[in-house]
Amino acid sequence: MLKQLILAGFGGQGVLSMGKILAQSGMVEGKEVTWIPSYGPEMRGGTANCAVTVSTSPINSPLVAEPDILVAMSLPSLEKFEPTVKLGGKVFVNSSLIKVEVKRKDITVYQVPANELADELGEVRIANMVMLGAILATEPIVKSATVLEALKKVLPSSKHHLISLNAQALQAGANVVG
Amino acid sequence: MKGNEAIGEAAIAAGCRYFFGYPITPQSELPEYLARRFPEVGGVYLQAESEVAAINMVYGAAATGARVLTSSSSPGISLKQEGISYAAGSELPCLIVNIMRGGPGLGGIQPAQSDYFQATKGGGHGDYKVIVLAPASVQELADMVGTGFDLADKYRNPAMILGDGFLGQMMEPVDFAGIKKSKIVEKTWAVGCKKGRERNVHTSLYLDPEELEKHNIKLAQKYELIAENETMAQEYLTEDAEIVVVAYGLVARICKAAVEKARSEGIRAGVFRPITLWPFPQKELRKAVAAARGVLAVEMSMGQMVEDVRLCLEGRLPVRFYGRAGGMAPTTQAVYEEIKKISLECKGVE
Amino acid sequence: MEVVFQRPQALTEEKFSYCPGCHHGIIHRLVAEVIDELGIIDNTVCVSSVGCSVVNYQFFATDAIQAAHGRAPAAATGVKRASPDSIVFTYQGDGDLAAMGTAEIIHAAARNENITVVFVNNAIYGMTGGQMAPTTLKGQKTTTSPYGRDSKREGNPIRVCELLNSLDGPAYLERVSVHDPKHVIRAKKAIKKAFQLQVKGRGFSLVEVLSACPTNWHLSPLASIEWVQKELMAYYPLGVFREAGEVDGEC
């Protein structure tokens, strides 16, 4: 298994942490992982993105020119990366913020109202985990349970009470595509 | 763990307790990491007023025999060249990390490999060499910190880790347990306390031309010894390769993916990755191209290492170049297409 | 027979390479006497700079490193941080300290780096042959200010002690002169205090020594001494600019 993802959105939408937690989860499962962030001025309010690779064998290039999966949390990130998605790949669109249709017909599109679902859970900042839930429901890159395990590892114990919220977010995302 | 942070933790594992630096994208996570971690292990972290000051602090600390580290990115490394030249001239060991970004001038902040010449051909003034290591993964980035310090101490010479913004910024699993704390050699030449010994003096100044020439010859002999003993390279499917792709650092991994693609279509390609950029692994490369009919050098620059490849092969094989610059990286597909072109040319010759 | 005067232990047997009438020799001797008197010869590190005193590591019988032009305070910082028990001093001229190394001296002072700086100000570049220094006086002729320094054209001289005195950092700043025996005694006291403060861990100390350069001033040694008194001391007043507290007794 070799899956390459581009996770993109506005700075502040948590795309970098979504990627990190996915990579961390892959590591927990003993898989090979890489995570490369975009960095620089674009981090401040512009588009932020990261490239994540999860594989069962050693990873050659950690750069992702043609992702298997694209997550677009905002319109500019959809416009920027839609053309790069691999033939037959998947795009997860944050339909709470993106009101336009995906133009390409040779990829599978999932509409996930991530912000609204996160709002319903009382925490809009968890939209990234809603999205991750949706991805993992269609692509078993890692198990959802592993994500929670990884969260336990990376979050300080003072933040562990948030893990159940994260579990709900993953589930909410999974429900959309399930 | 981020590459930049891995360097910091590896430095601690290698027994380094002194860091002098100045923040610059994309390596700032390293000074930030050490500013946090060094106080916990009794180390000294100091943010200097400039890269110029930082490298000269390194020079002073190195003279006391301490394992000392500095890091920066391309424009900052330019500023450090003065101090690196002095350290080489005075034969003071230290480790310098360059997490390269695009240039010239202020250039950009995205990854590049355009400081190859600067790193391997001297960089500053005078006849000197710096030992240059090129890691391709976060794990190697960490492993090479210890290697770099050991080589620097062994030869009393500055060593450099030449990475790029991708390596500095990316996260990969990294294991520090494997990094064995290398034995730090006793430095009888260190300044500080001269009780019971002759005084130690470190200078790069030799006003008498005969003396300076002697010094230059001594340094040259040392560099020859390093070139003889310390070259490192990694090969991938080169034994039967008709086309050998030469690339260093992260780019070599892109090339590996491209070579796999080429192999799946019956093109016998392989990758040769110099790990030491100076000394350049000449013998190893000549061996790796024994079965080759064409060579492709790939870099994130407009063509720098390719000159060493050509020098090494002395016209025996056609050497093509493919490069991206300014923060753009070669894609697997693009490298594959270059390989294919060479393959077709080779067939055409038959 | 009783020995009443001899070469300080902190000076090697090497003959000074300085011009007749130059004050470097006196200043070297003062530094060496202080090192002897404080009994720190075995843990003192001299950081030599670039200028006429570039090879002073040949004269001081201590451990030494030679630093790049202007960078001596940075190199000294590296030595001191990595070897805190060493007594580290830089010996810098006006070109090295007040031109090339302006950033390094200001930041070492601002950090209150626990080092001692002996700053020799003779208002001209000696080693390179009489060019204008940052401390060259207004109207003073040098090979690169042949019409006399004009502040409109060449800018104004820099008063280093006063400049550093604007910082919170330094522990001790004094300007002295060595043009006559009385002032030599005062200069030695200042240099001794500067080293003592470092021994006590009080931080950054700098002694600026006004000094003559007869060769490049094109004056006789005697006339040079008069010029120090009349011209240099008028623009660069002697005195203590900063004192972090009394140094009690011998160290």
Provide keyphrases for this structure.
heterotrimer, A: 178 residues, alpha/beta, Pyruvate-ferredoxin Oxidoreductase, domain 3, six-stranded mixed beta sheet, 6 helices, 37% helix, B: 350 residues, Rossmann fold, 2 domains, seven-stranded mixed beta sheet, five-stranded mixed beta sheet, 12 helices, 13 strands, 17% strand, globular
How many individual domains of chain B?
2
What do we call the CATH topology of the largest domain in chain B? Rossmann fold
Q: Please, how many helices of chain B?
A: 12
How would a textbook summarize the main sheet of chain C?
7 strands, mixed
Shape of chain C: globular
Name of the CATH architecture of chain C: 3-Layer(aba) Sandwich
Class inferred from helices and paired strands of chain C: alpha/beta
How far the N terminus sits from the C terminus of chain C, by CA atoms, comes to 30 Å
Structural class of chain B: alpha/beta
How would a textbook summarize the main sheet of chain B?
Answer: 7 strands, mixed
Relevant CATH superfamily of chain C? Thiamin diphosphate (ThDP)-binding fold, Pyr/PP domains
Q: What is the N-to-C succession of helices and strands of chain B? A: HEHEHEHEHEHEHEHEEHEEHEHEH
The CATH topology of chain C turns out to be Rossmann fold
Beta-strand residue percentage of chain B: 15-25%
Average pLDDT number of chain B: 96
Explained architecture:
The complex is a heterotrimer of chains A (178), B (350) and C (251). Chain A is of the alpha/beta class and 178 residues long. Chain A has a single domain (2-177), classed as Pyruvate-ferredoxin Oxidoreductase, domain 3 (3-Layer(aba) Sandwich), CATH 3.40.920.10. Chain A has helices at residues 15-28, 75-81, 114-120, 127-138, 144-154, 163-177, and strands spanning 2-10, 32-37, 47-55, 69-72, 90-94, 108-112. A 6-stranded mixed β-sheet of chain A has the order 2-3-1-4-5-6, with helices on both faces. The model of chain A has no long low-confidence stretch (mean pLDDT 94). Chain B is α/β, with parallel strands linked by helices and 350 residues long. Chain B folds into 2 domains: 3-229, Thiamin diphosphate (ThDP)-binding fold, Pyr/PP domains (Rossmann fold, 3-Layer(aba) Sandwich); 235-349, Rossmann fold. The longest helix of chain B has 21 residues, at 209-229. Chain C is of the alpha/beta class and 251 residues long. Chain C has a single domain (24-243), classed as Thiamin diphosphate (ThDP)-binding fold, Pyr/PP domains (Rossmann fold). In chain C, helix 1 packs across helix 7 (181-199) and helix 3 (94-100) packs across helix 4 (102-110). The relative contact order of chain C is 0.15. Chains in contact: A-B, B-C. At the B-C interface, helix 3, helix 4 and strand 7 of B face strand 1, strand 2, helix 2 and helix 4 of C.
